[in-house]
Prior knowledge:
The chain has five helices and four strands; from the N terminus they run ββββααααα. With about 190 residues, the protein is mostly helical. The chain has a two-stranded antiparallel ribbon with strand order 1-2.
Amino acid sequence: MTNETKTCPFCGEEILAVAKKCKHCGEWLDKQGEEKSETVQCPACGEEVLAGSKTCNHCGENLQNNSSASDVNTSSELPSKAKKYNWGPLFTGFIWGFFNGMPKNILITLVVLFMCSFIPTLGIVASLVNTCILIWAGTKGNQWAWSHKNWSCVEGFNKHQKKWVLYPFVIYLILTVLTIVVVANSM
Length: 187
């Protein structure tokens, strides 16, 4: 078996040279026989790339938001595999919303409520309202995030959203360890 690799023309990831389907984006590399694939011109370097490619395999330019990459999924309808509760808004709050297409009026409300939570008399009420909005945002989160970017596959989308749940736990774990170290050293 050979270990030679090539770059996937759709996602730009490294795959085996003999691969028929990309393991990263799921695109079929051999379009049923010897048909010539439709190509478009990369707006950055001018080289020909396969229509629907996410990145230019010559210069690495992101083609997802380019009108010349005509086959990129621009549907705002959420696929059934992505219709689930999104924990990102609850665990990371307005930070998740800023990067994942939360409507601006909700985002501003969350920021204001977060700031109000530090005011002694308003703190409890603001924190409760903020938490309720974030719980509700989890029901709409995947729809907002899917519509915010041109995702080419549901698997990549779900993997990206899971990171928004993992990061806070890693940060909380690090802060907990640091707190224990500081307390132990101060005794």
